Amino acid sequence: MTTGDLKALTPTSFRRGNLPADAAADPAARVMVLDMQELMPGIQRLRDWTLAALAPQPGETAVDLGCGTGAEVRRLAALVGPAGRAVGIEPHAGLRTQAEARALAEGSTAVFVEGDAPALPFEDGTVDVIRSERVFQHLDDPAAAAREIARVLAPGGRVALVDSDWGSMVQSMGEPDVVRRLMDASFRRWTNPFAGRSLRWLLRRAGLVVDAEVGADAAVLPEEQLRVPVLLRNSIEHALADGAITVEEGDRLERDNIAGAERGEAFVAVMMFSVIGRSVDPAG
Ligand SMILES: C[S@@+](CC[C@H](N)C(=O)[O-])C[C@H]1O[C@@H](n2cnc3c(N)ncnc32)[C@H](O)[C@@H]1O
Questions:
Q1: Whose CA is nearest to atom 22 of ligand 1?
Q2: Is residue 283 in a domain?
Q3: Three-class secondary structure of residue 279 per DSSP
Q4: Mutate to test the pocket of ligand 1, among 51, 135, 162 (most ligand atoms within 8 A of CB)
Q5: Can you give the residue range of the structural domain that contains 66?
Q6: Closest ligand 1 atom, CA of 66?
Q7: How far is the CA of 16 from the centre of ligand 1 (A)?
Q8: pTM over 0.85
Q9: What separation, in Å, do the N-terminal and C-terminal C-alpha atoms of the chain show?
Q10: pLDDT, tens digit, 9 for 90 and up, residues 86-102
């Protein structure tokens, strides 16, 4: 895997409809990005918080919607035990194969199936726990996906939607006006860049009861990645294609970031939120 492979990734590379279009980057670059993200302490903390809030019990059916390489499905499988069922829904065949291989290597009982958020492969009221992390930012119709989650949740079921909100991104280097135009250009390509702020409302509109406490943490880019800003160059190219910045502005932004990273001044982070919803239990 070289940094060159990452260049093929865009803000919409994880969108279901775009999966085959990026065949050149498929699936190694996506696996690499997900593995890098998984190591971020903010993501690990928010995953732990989310799992504790969902509290999967032995014997329950637990689902990770848009599970990527399946790390959280393996954790769910360990908690629901042999009497339960942990299912990862993943539309991307390459990621699904990777998830299956990792589960097999760990001796996990997690299973993985093809699926699409607005049409989950479960009967009404049959799933106890659902989590979906950094998926809603890629969905064309997040409200339909939230309704679908509410449909399959069993009485007493719990759901966690975890997502970034790219409007919260902070970047220490570069001229603020150029950074703003770069981000605006990127938002235009993104399916749902402000997913994080919409999660609570989506679950409520789907008829679920939402916990008052919201989990929050930041994905902070590791400093070694800031020294080789491949994804920044990628965004610059897109902003140039949109006419949002000039070649000089893009080159200066890249130089400023590399120099800032060398001096230890560069800092890039985005907030993520975890919202817990519960189905209304008619029994009480
Ligand atoms: C940024 S990745 C996050 C993967 C994983 N949840 C994690 O936290 O590492 C987004 C995931 O959503 C999946 N995805 C995209 N569109 C989807 C859809 N319509 N239904 C289900 N999953 C989808 C992608 O294939 C990808 O695995």
A1: 66
A2: no
A3: coil
A4: 135
A5: 3-167+191-219
A6: 22
A7: 8
A8: yes
A9: 53
A10: 999 999 999 999 999 99
Ligand 1 site-directed mutation target among 63, 138, 163, 270, most atoms within 8 Å of CB: 138
Distance CA 100, CA 94 (A): 10
In a domain, 130, yes or no: yes
Q: Which residue has a Cα nearest atom 16 of ligand 1?
A: 16
Residue 123 maps to a domain: yes
Output the CA 89–ligand 1 centroid distance in Å: 9
CA of 20 to the centre of ligand 1 (A): 14
Asked if residues 114 and 91 have their Cβ atoms less than 8 Å apart, the reply is: yes
Contacts of 224 (CB under 8 A, 6+ apart): none
Q: Whose CA is nearest to atom 23 of ligand 1?
A: 66
pLDDT per residue of the chain (284 residues) written in tens, 0 to 9: 455 566 667 777 788 866 654 444 468 888 999 999 999 999 999 999 999 999 999 999 999 999 999 999 999 999 999 999 999 999 999 999 999 999 999 999 999 999 999 999 999 999 999 999 999 999 999 999 999 999 999 999 999 999 999 999 999 999 999 999 999 999 998 899 999 999 999 999 999 999 999 999 999 999 988 888 888 988 999 999 999 999 999 999 999 999 999 999 999 999 999 999 999 876 66
Within a domain: residue 75?
A: yes
135 CA distance to ligand 1 centroid (A)? 5
The enclosing domain of 88 has a CATH number of 3.40.50.150
Q: Which two tokens stand for residue 58?
A: 């032995």
What's the structural domain count of the chain? Answer: 1
**What are the tokens at 110?**
């997690």
Cβ-contact 156, 128 below 8 angstroms? yes
